[in-house]
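Deliverable D2.4 — example input (structure tokens):
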């Protein structure tokens, strides 16, 4: 069996007296679209922030590409693309200009202007590429957030509630987009959501957390079979 691309090992985070991520252990295999499901305040964003070295864990570990998040210079982050909650941009610049600025952070020659144009096309913003981001709608900013996350062709894409605030058509398009990235660009996707039907529609595996604790995890098909079995009269 290949090593998992992402593995949480009893990962925990305490803020003051509140244990908001409580000994989470789970694995994500390469090629999966993994749904990280939980209600508001369950600890999804905090977990994701720990994976991205934005928040320091209280205890436990997580491995990305076999490298611990306790690594001092987490070079593996170059293989990760992320959208965490509301993305921030230079509002007085266009989306293309924002992406071109970001492209300069990557090693020379890896992200050129063509790639910036390509990702804008992938997220359906090509016609608004020259409009300044300050006038974008919420859904357009969300799409641009996804564009910046995939700009450098990451192996692992981490998306924190990517469809929040989108209208039904926008949700459908973003979900379709995520499936396409996994299929066509070979990305493994880890996405948080509080919508069971979203996870059901696009994910191959899932974990459900509540109050920081893991409730259930496994292939999405298996989870729904369990639900169906439980729902049987007398079952
Ligand atoms: N910096 C912080 N300081 C103190 N408490 C925090 C901090 N960040 C998060 N929390 C708390 O951690 C808990 C989990 O928050 P988190 O944002 O991880 O939840 P979530 O599952 O992402 O929720 P949502 O679906 O609303 O985005 C909440 O009780 C929150 O108040
Ligand atoms: Mg959150």
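Example output (designed residues):
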């Amino acid at each position: 069996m290949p090593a998992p691309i992402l593995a949480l090992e009893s990962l925990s985070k305490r803020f003051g007296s509140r244990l908001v991520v409580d000994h989470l252990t789970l694995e994500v295999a390469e090629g999966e679209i993994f749904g990280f499901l939980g209600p508001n305040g369950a600890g999804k964003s905090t977990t994701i922030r720990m994976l991205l070295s934005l928040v320091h864990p209280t205890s436990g570990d997580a491995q990305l590409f076999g490298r611990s998040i306790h690594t001092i210079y987490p070079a593996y982050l170059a293989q990760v693309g992320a959208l965490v909650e509301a993305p921030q941009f230079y509002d007085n610049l266009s989306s293309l200009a924002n992406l071109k600025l970001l492209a300069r952070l990557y090693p020379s020659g890896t992200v050129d202007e063509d790639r910036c144009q390509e990702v804008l096309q992938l997220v359906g913003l090509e016609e608004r590429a020259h409009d300044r981001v300050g006038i974008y709608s919420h859904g357009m900013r969300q799409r641009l957030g996804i564009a910046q996350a995939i700009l450098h062709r990451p192996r692992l894409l981490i998306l924190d509630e990517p469809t929040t605030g989108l209208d039904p058509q926008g949700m459908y398009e973003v979900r379709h987009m995520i499936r396409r990235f996994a299929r066509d660009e070979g990305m493994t996707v880890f996405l948080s959501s509080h919508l069971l039907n979203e996870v059901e529609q696009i994910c191959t595996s899932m974990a459900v957390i509540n109050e920081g604790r893991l409730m259930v995890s496994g292939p999405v098909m298996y989870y729904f079979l369990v639900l169906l079995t439980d729902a049987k009269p007398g079952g």
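The chain is about 30% helix and 25% strand.
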